[in-house]
Amino acid sequence: MQCFVVQSDEIEGRLDVFYYQPEFIELERKIKKHSSKTLGDFIINISSGATPEKDESEKYYTVSSENGVPFLRVQNVTESGLNLEDCKYINFDTHNGMLKRSQVKEGYLLTKITGVGRMAISSVAPKGFEGNINQHLVAIKTDGYQTSEVLAAFLNSDIGERLAFRRSTGGTRPALDYQALKTIPVIFKPGIVDIMQSAYAQKKQMEAEAQGLLTSFDELFLEHIGLKLPEVKQTKIFVIDSDELEGALNAERYANRFKLDHSFKWVTVGNIGSINRETFVPSRTNADIEYSLIRIDDLDSNPSLAVLRHVRGKDINGTALKVNPYDVLIARLVPTIENKKFVLAPESDKPLIASTEFIDLRCNSENNPLFVLALLKTDFYRHVMIQKSRGATPSRRRLSHEDFTKLPLPKIALEIQNKIADEVKRRISEAERLRAEANKIIEEAKKKVEEMILGD
């Protein structure tokens, strides 16, 4: 328990203890020695968006930039800039009608105002950009692109994050209202932009090297066993025989045509292991037990390792999948298949559980799980899994457990599998080293920025 005294002249309207913690008071005193400006002094206009009804997705959304504009959500706004990798799009009617007031133009400062994690994460809309935002972000018009860049660098600093966090309200889902956002003290230091941009450029390059190690598995199989996975060619007009029908009648399911290498013996996923579908409700079964939870949302695109979140059963909503170490977990929603969110369940000193949106493959003793994971991470299998998915809405289509078990796999001797798995393990280790080094570069840059801001 922390005890401290607050003088009456330090009261600023809020009466909660959190707001007056000594570390916050001391930080703001340091800031005021250098500047009396606040974020509000730089705001010409500020607006927040909304999320159109998903039940009427055809009315509001579109699948590409050809028929609409990017619809930015919290995950698209990062400290290193806008990330449009997993971006949704709204059509022009929605952009110019329902969400007209929250339109985003180049040079706008985009800031996160609600949600867990770091508060006030900010990006600047790049040159030529036009888009929109949901209700968890604000779009701020400043006097120019350079001003927005400096403000974003400041808000993304550890100092900016603490100042924003102090002004947030709410328990499990903190938020910043407009007034709180405008009162954030700002020290305007243009030099911090170059420091952070240089660091993020190095980080981007190192992460690209790391990603390259994890996306060249096709070459790995060709080099070690001479397996050249077929190219998947999609045609718009085609003919199939009646005996090729597999129940579902959606055309996309049969559009991708490919021929397997007949120099290999082929089996199905169902032949190399079993599908685990054991689920339970942690909040009802073992509410006080702490679990190691694997969530799809916690995984980056094409992750090298699983991310474990330690959480008690009572804090887990709904059903969870019981998993074992070395189970192969395949995210089955089409957007997550596109991003290859497939991982190996790691060892843990706590019971392992995962989202039920994973397919859990438990390999038998004749197959190396890491070898199987690497094979499924190739572009060929990604295309085939997307092809076999079912559902009316593209973003909600899923790969069924039954269709997954029918996927063809080459039958490879365990000794060779182990050799390839060792190389995969080496690449994963090197990729993790590069990512750790990249993160260290960012942390060192942030320390320089903090020193520059406070003049230490």
Automatic annotation (TrEMBL):
SUPFAM superfamilies: DNA methylase specificity domain (SSF116734). The keyword Coiled coil applies. One of its GO terms (biological process) is DNA restriction-modification system. It comes from the Bacteria. Residues 414-451 form a coiled coil. Keywords: Coiled coil, DNA-binding, Restriction system. GO terms for molecular function: DNA binding. The keyword Coiled coil applies. InterPro entries: Restrct_endonuc_typeI_TRD_sf (IPR044946), Type-I_RE_S_subunit (IPR051212). This is Type I restriction modification DNA specificity domain-containing protein. It comes from Candidatus Schekmanbacteria bacterium RBG_16_38_10. The lineage of its organism: Bacteria, Candidatus Schekmaniibacteriota.
